[in-house]
Write a structure and sequence with these properties.
heterodimer, A: about 375 residues, Rossmann fold, B: about 350 residues, alpha/beta, eight-stranded mixed sheet, 14 helices
Chain lengths: ~375, ~350
Amino acid sequence: MSKEKEILKETPETKEPEVVVDVQNLSVGFTVRGKKINVIRNISFKVYKGETLAIVGESGSGKSVTTKTFTGMLEKNGFVTSGSILFDGMNLAKFKTDEDWRPIRGKRIATIFQDPMTSLNPLLTIGFQISEVLRLHHGLSKQEAKEEAIKLLKKVRIPNAEARYDDYPFQYSGGMRQRVVIAIALACRPEILICDEPTTALDVTVQAQIIALIKELQEEYHWTTIFITHDLGVVANVANRIAVMYGGQIVEYGTVEDVFYNPAHPYTWALLASLPQLGSKDEALSYIKGNPPSFSSEIIGDAFAPRNEYAMNIDFVKEPPMFQISPTHCAKTWLLDPRAPKVEKPKVIQELHARMKRAAEELKRQEGVEDE
Amino acid sequence: MSKEEKKILEQAPVEEKELDIFEQGRKDHPEDDDTIVKMRDVRVAFKIGSIERVIINHLNLDIKRGEVLGLVGESGSGKTTIGRALIRINKVSGGEVLFNNVKISGKIPKKTERLLKTKMQMIFQDPGDSLNDRANIDYIVSEGLRAFKLYKDEEDRLQKVQQMMQRVGLRPEYLNRYPHEFSGGQRQRIGIARCMIMNPEFVIADEPISALDVSIRAQVLNLIREFQQERKMTVLFIAHDLSVVRYISDRIAVIYAGHIVEIAEANRLFEAPLHPYTKSLLSAVPIPDPKVERKKKIITYNPAELHHYVLSDAPKLVEIEPGHFVRCNTPELEAYKAELERLGGKK
């Protein structure tokens, strides 16, 4: 859909920040049991320098697959079918061999994965795994690498870093392991850090700490973050912009204020409405009925239509275009068409401001006490 | 679940007695009937080689009949251990656990243990790992029924299973499928179905939604809540996220390093959190409002700095206002009392 691309491309900004990654009409397919399925269906978006872009969606919406194409880490049966990913004058979509990827992967674009236990090698010490990166990428000697690695461990607030240098991953807690993974990513001084659900496996308290750490280090190292999550609640803190994904497409894109204060797509409404923080005790929490689309058959019309209580007839026939709401905000739903009937938004969304305020007050209260 | 079905389940004779031991326990102690589970001075320890690690020590906790008690704490705080000790997966090495005033910890008669399994059920965290990969859904859901012969004939069993499937929002046709064919949310609903088909009095839900997408969490939460309200079950809901627990619980117990540090009615805990660890948990809950979140300060809990406990004045769980307990020593109690005064009394 070229219209979508045009709109995103022409997004006029008061002062246009520098674009680091420009994704244009990207489609990704997988071969499953001899059958080709399209998992990413023609998406275009830009990632701006020094900002944090959050990609939000349910499992199977294609959020991880999208960013895996940035580092050539698609599974063996996956491939980019069309479109381009422009990064520093290169088209990453054309990269094929590991040889091509080596200068990019890890070095300029690093990834932090969900489960820190599986991204660390259980048989090697923490220290070895960090210093290995330093030796290979920066050519440091063993001793220099160790010193640098300890510095990095301190940077990610591992207490007693010298003593814990020779520990193995199993001796670290989940939160500490994720810190180590961040330290390894940090070692290469990447320009882009992809955080693929970095806190999903962690406790809320640890989650808050890790997010604060990523934010802080970003300010220091000026990288660009792409933050992938299924929890909209988490991104309010970190993101500058949000892309909401569903069924392999971006259905809403805007600044964090656009998406939280003025959500336009019914899917975004549903995501917000299902947050327990915004729920009230005397009513059932709302949730999204049904399952995300399976890609085995071709999706006709709006992918969200079967689960959407606001779906109109056209949603089942024709795919909606991207409608521009404001210079920074756009959404892909027929509800924004001038011909569409006015709909009553769900209760939670109508009361969104009041509910956010209430949630904040309930949780704020103890901070007020603290200040006294 | 229909009335008839309920009746059948209730009448299903497990033993050939009029009153089973737990019913007898309730009858014998009518004064204690509003408490379903009592943990008295409970100690749980794990042995790794010759080293013993005490996870829970001197734990006292009462769970009231028909309530949802939220148990919140971070990984390693012992919340799962408590749940597993209750249902006899982890061994209790000291103190005792009473269920309907009958001792269920330590060495108990085989008969009691067997009967307990019909009354107490668990929903596990990981819906992938907790289901047998090689068993179809029909088998998984009806395993409990088979084990206790809680059905008349094959037709009756199938009907019960199908009804339960529908109740949790899964199609009865799915019965012949295997766990790997389902999504995480669906698998957790299978986990709930196999728990609820036993019509338990007491359910331990051990982080049932932590592994699920936020959009799916709500339906699992709603489902547990519906069952609880409909059957007046007692639920121990274990989680690490206060925002989730608040939504479902009547009371919330906050646990840190094996000790309950604060316990209060859900709303009261949010209104007047006293213990610094509770405050730190509250500060970690993400608020879906960018303006508020950007200003957020995380309160970190550092017990070594905050508490100066001495042996002569060891911290205890003290009832600071009706129904609101906090773990503190004497000077802390004074400070908490003053804080409570500032916050205003209980509404």
